[in-house]
Amino acid sequence: GTGCSFLAGDIHTRYDRDVRVNASALAPVAKLTGWRGERVNTLLVASSDTGFAELRLAAKDPKAQLNVLRYTLGNGTLYGDILDGTTQTTFKGVTRPVVYTYDIPVNASGIIRDTVTATINGVVCALPVEITVGPRTLPAVKDWKFHLDFWQHADPIARWHDVPMWSDAHFELLKAYYRPLVEMGQKTITT
Questions:
Q1: Rg (CA), the chain
Q2: Alpha-carbon span 52 to 90, nearest angstrom
Q3: pLDDT digits 0-9 by tens, 100-127
Q4: Residue 190 contacts residue 149 (beta carbons within 8 Å)
Q5: How far apart are CA 12 and CA 140, in angstroms?
Q6: 114: how many CB neighbours lie within 10 A of its CB?
Q7: pTM to 2 decimals?
Q8: Selected residue with higher pLDDT from 166 and 17
Q9: The pLDDT value given to residue 3
Q10: CA 167 to CA 19: how far, in whole Å?
Q11: How many angstroms separate the CA atoms of 67 and 43, rounded?
Q12: pLDDT of residue 84
């Protein structure tokens, strides 16, 4: 067999790219809880004995977002650091975390059910997702009363994409990186 699994992980656990995850330590269903209007996230973990010649992801619910966790080298150690919505399908290693994000609609109630499928080297694995909707509704992001300020450094984006700093191409790229901050309530950019 291909020895693949696709299960719910733990956001507090570091999953090593080159070490196969013990499937018994993971959950067969991703369970989340959130209020109406809230964005919830969880970590899903794809694992394969033979690596990822193919890893394709899809959520049944179009409101869900899936981002593969990419690794970067820091002080000689690989760290999961980059949320990548890429359509890339080949990855190094035998373990690959995936961040599942869902914006709970303001009119939702009860339990929202979704299914995420991972095609790993031709084998399809399905993972149910259950989101229990709480009794409260968050105000729209534009109405939040606190000041969110994540400091930003624009130069790594230019280097990563190999474009000149502050060029039109760089500003266009910055939009994709900074738009999620706006969606989280950030109203200014500090660099």
A1: 18
A2: 5
A3: 999 999 999 999 999 999 888 888 989 9
A4: yes
A5: 28
A6: 19
A7: 0.81
A8: 166
A9: 59
A10: 41
A11: 10
A12: 72
